Each structure stands twice: as structure tokens, then as C-alpha cells.
Amino acid sequence: MSSREKTKVVLLACGSFNPITNMHLRMFELARDHLEDTGRYRVVKGIISPVGDSYKKKGLIEACHRLEMARLATQNSDWITVDDWESQQTEWVETAKVVRHHAELISSENNNDDVDTVRCGKRRKLEQNTIICQSSSYINTKEDTPHLNLLCGADVLESFGVPNLWKPEDIEEIVGRYGVACITRCGSDPEKFINQSDVLYKHRKNIYMVREWVTNEISATHVRRALRRGQSVLYLLPDPVVRYIQEHSLYSAESEQMNADAILAPFQKYTSTN
Ligand SMILES: Nc1ncnc2c1ncn2[C@@H]1O[C@H](COP(=O)(O)OP(=O)(O)OP(=O)(O)O)[C@@H](O)[C@H]1O
Ligand SMILES: NC(=O)c1ccc[n+]([C@@H]2O[C@H](COP(=O)(O)O)[C@@H](O)[C@H]2O)c1
């Protein structure tokens, strides 16, 4: 399959990134390798979308710091970017809505590309939604619009089963319409979980299981704990992130108590309507 025939994919990771770790970055590399190894996909972009402060997770520090650390971590990447749309919303945004927002952006950007291709006067043939621009031998089709996949760890997939955490229609939309690239994580058994869930089993072909053979339990929770105890976090996080944390004295016993008495936004939202 030539690279032009491959489906373009954008990987979107939603999470706390409190703080961003090397494992978060590695997830993107693993998923890109896995998808491209199939010979059917070309991963064109990775997006990191830190959750907003109104998510109310215990120990969640301000989004401005989490965003800045994510930006520092990806400053040398030529394909992973950070997006602040989600974190700028006044209320917590369901992941399905975040995915939809980015899918719409990608679609509108791609449609603009079509218009530009036509406007540049190089259009030779318009056939079955296919615009062939001969001078650059660039073929742009409606099918060429990159497809969005949610990138997550197996714990997020398994959290779909937690009562009042996810709306069933959101799970259906994320898995059925977009698809998920899921990185294995110690202590999780995503294949078993998929088999036990009717909706995940129905859409199992849209779930790309990405195995991390070098089992790696770098977690943001562990990093925050080490920081509270004055232990080194070097090599767990990108160096500029370590420096940023030191400069701003982030992550203390006090910051870990943030939202300690709050109810996580999805529970607040879905429990009260039941
Ligand atoms: N070691 C890991 N292996 C696989 N996936 C991971 C790993 N660490 C984080 N992820 C994934 O990265 C995404 C963003 O993670 P997020 O920051 O929300 O949680 P986290 O890193 O598990 O942090 P915390 O420890 O604070 O819960 C999630 O999809 C999560 O599953
Ligand atoms: N119903 C939902 O859309 C829903 C529920 C729980 C977590 N999430 C998202 O999952 C991500 C990871 O959350 P945790 O850091 O709590 O694992 C966050 O971006 C959060 O917004 C979404």
C-alpha cells in the first residue's frame, strides 16, 4: 500500500498530565509504531489535551502549570502538540465532546485544504470526491481526512465499567465512531475487559491494543509522591519539566490535598441526574 493510500490518523490523549511523564510521551511512540506496522495507517499528529481544573481530581494542580509542562515536554517533537481548548472551558468537558471537537477541527482544516487545492488553479480532475493536483502529484480525497483515535492507557478503558463515570452513549461514540489506541498497563487485563463488555466487544475492531513489552509503571501519582518526599524524579520526566517543577515549587503535601473533599466532576454530573 503506498503512503498516499494509507489512512491518516491523529492520536488524541486526554488526561490529567499532573505532571506529564516520559511514559505519556512513550505512549504516542508506541501507538504510532503499532498503527504504522499494520501497513494501513500513517500517524500524522499527536495531540495532548490536559483536563481542566473543574475535573476536581485530588491533587490536580492548576491547568496553566500542567499545560506549560506538557509544552516543555513536547517542544522538540515534530509531531506531538499540546492543545489547551479542553482546559480553557469553564466546566469539565466529557471526553466524547473533546474527541468530537478535535474531529471537527481536523475535518474543517482538511476541507480548507481542499478549497486551497482547488483555488491554486492546479485542479485537473474532480472525480468521485477526488481532487488530483498533477503538478505536485498530491492526491486529496474526502477519505483523506485524518481519522481521530483516542489514545489511552488500559486503566482508562477499564474505567468505562465504573458506575456513573461514563455515559454509555459516550463510550459508544468514542469506540464506535472514532476508535481507541490502548496501551497495556501493569495490573490491567484489557482483552478480558473487552470480552466482558458488550459495547467494547461489538466495536473490538476499533480498539487497537498496543503492548508495552518493557513494562513501565511510571505514573504521575508515583512522581508526585517522590516529589513530596524530596526524592529525585530525574529520568522519569523530561529534564525541562523537572526544572519547571523545581522553579515553581510544584507538588507538595499541600497541593496533594487540592480537591480532597471535592467530588470528581463526572460523578457529580451523572450521579445527580440518576
Ligand atoms: N505507565 C503507563 N502505562 C500506560 N498508560 C499510561 C501510563 N501512565 C499514564 N498512562 C495513560 O496516560 C493517559 C493520561 O494519564 P493521566 O495523566 O490522566 O493519568 P496517570 O498518568 O495515570 O496519572 P495519575 O497517576 O495522576 O492517575 C491515560 O490514558 C493513562 O492511562
Ligand atoms: N465520562 C467521561 O467523559 C470521563 C470520565 C472519567 C474520566 N474522563 C477523562 O479521562 C481522563 C483521565 O482521567 P484520570 O486522570 O482521572 O485517569 C481525563 O481527561 C478525564 O476528563 C472522562
UniProtKB/TrEMBL annotation:
<dbReference type="InterPro" id="IPR045094">
    <property type="entry name" value="NMNAT_euk"/>
</dbReference>
<keyword id="KW-0067">ATP-binding</keyword>
<dbReference type="GO" id="GO:0009435">
    <property type="term" value="P:NAD+ biosynthetic process"/>
</dbReference>
<comment type="pathway">
    <text>Cofactor biosynthesis; NAD(+) biosynthesis; deamido-NAD(+) from nicotinate D-ribonucleotide: step 1/1.</text>
</comment>
<dbReference type="InterPro" id="IPR014729">
    <property type="entry name" value="Rossmann-like_a/b/a_fold"/>
</dbReference>
<dbReference type="GO" id="GO:0004515">
    <property type="term" value="F:nicotinate-nucleotide adenylyltransferase activity"/>
</dbReference>
<keyword id="KW-0520">NAD</keyword>
<comment type="pathway">
    <text>Cofactor biosynthesis; NAD(+) biosynthesis; NAD(+) from nicotinamide D-ribonucleotide: step 1/1.</text>
</comment>
<keyword id="KW-0862">Zinc</keyword>
<dbReference type="InterPro" id="IPR004821">
    <property type="entry name" value="Cyt_trans-like"/>
</dbReference>
<dbReference type="Pfam" id="PF01467">
    <property type="entry name" value="CTP_transf_like"/>
</dbReference>
<keyword id="KW-0547">Nucleotide-binding</keyword>
<comment type="subunit">
    <text>Homohexamer. Interacts with ADPRT/PARP1.</text>
</comment>
<protein>
    <recommendedName>
        <fullName>Nicotinamide-nucleotide adenylyltransferase</fullName>
        <ecNumber>2.7.7.1</ecNumber>
        <ecNumber>2.7.7.18</ecNumber>
    </recommendedName>
</protein>
<feature type="domain" description="Cytidyltransferase-like">
    <location>
        <begin position="12"/>
        <end position="225"/>
    </location>
</feature>
<dbReference type="GO" id="GO:0005634">
    <property type="term" value="C:nucleus"/>
</dbReference>
<keyword id="KW-0548">Nucleotidyltransferase</keyword>
<keyword id="KW-0808">Transferase</keyword>
<dbReference type="InterPro" id="IPR051182">
    <property type="entry name" value="Euk_NMN_adenylyltrnsfrase"/>
</dbReference>
<keyword id="KW-0597">Phosphoprotein</keyword>
<dbReference type="GO" id="GO:0005524">
    <property type="term" value="F:ATP binding"/>
</dbReference>
<keyword id="KW-0460">Magnesium</keyword>
<dbReference type="InterPro" id="IPR005248">
    <property type="entry name" value="NadD/NMNAT"/>
</dbReference>
<comment type="similarity">
    <text>Belongs to the eukaryotic NMN adenylyltransferase family.</text>
</comment>
<keyword id="KW-0539">Nucleus</keyword>
<dbReference type="GO" id="GO:0000309">
    <property type="term" value="F:nicotinamide-nucleotide adenylyltransferase activity"/>
</dbReference>
<keyword id="KW-0662">Pyridine nucleotide biosynthesis</keyword>
